[in-house]
Amino acid sequence: MKKSLRKQVLQELKSLSKEEKQRMNDWLTEQFFQHPFYKEAKTIATYLSFPHEFQTAELIKQAQKDGKEIVIPKTYPKGQMDFVVYEPEKLERNSFGLLEPQGEAIVFEPSQIDLIHVPGLAFNPSGYRVGYGGGYYDRYLEHFTGHTISTLYLCQIQDFQPEHYDIPVEEVLIYERDF
């Protein structure tokens, strides 16, 4: 079920026009910056996005201007993940095609992170998500006590039953406006 859902949503995301994506990204980024979770956070974990996803580059740039510490995921075998300081000069493509920190990096403990901006392909109305299938975020979020938020396009809202190990995102911002 998750495999076909991933394929369907991925196809929908890739079919969005560049202009449509830019409009949605701008609106979602603005909503993110207005959210109390963002305003209160000192350290924010986010991801470096694939081209079909919500684009995080502007979010990262503005958050840094706002004095926020930005940390990004570094993955390891067996579904393990840490968040490390965002240092653009130390990024290389991993086996998934994503930019990821290479070499030594400062690891942040979950208690040092105020807000995690969680990626995903599909989300149900209760905030449960279907990611890319590695389980990295579910494992990490299991022990995380800070806030979580995701930024979504309407096509990412899907009806599915979560698995027992799935961890819901606390707040989901959804682009629903039609200009």
UniProtKB/TrEMBL annotation:
Keywords associated with the record: ATP-binding, Ligase, Magnesium, Metal-binding, Nucleotide-binding
Keyword Hydrolase: no
Chemical reaction(s) catalysed: (6S)-5-formyl-5,6,7,8-tetrahydrofolate + ATP = (6R)-5,10-methenyltetrahydrofolate + ADP + phosphate
One example of a Gene Ontology biological process annotation: folic acid-containing compound biosynthetic process
GO MF annotation terms: 5-formyltetrahydrofolate cyclo-ligase activity; ATP binding; metal ion binding
Residues at which ATP binds: K2, K3, S4, L5, R6, R129, V130, G131, Y132, G133, G134, G135, Y136, Y137
EC code(s) of this entry: 6.3.3.2
InterPro entries per record: FTHF_cligase, FTHF_cligase-like_sf, NagB/RpiA_transferase-like
Positions contributing to substrate binding: L48, E53
Domain of life: Bacteria
Keyword Glycoprotein found: no
Cofactor(s) required, per the database record: Mg(2+)
PANTHER family, A to Z: 5-FORMYLTETRAHYDROFOLATE CYCLO-LIGASE (PTHR23407:SF1), ATPASE INHIBITOR/5-FORMYLTETRAHYDROFOLATE CYCLO-LIGASE (PTHR23407)
Family label: Belongs to the 5-formyltetrahydrofolate cyclo-ligase family.
This protein's name: 5-formyltetrahydrofolate cyclo-ligase
Organism (species): Streptococcus peroris ATCC 700780
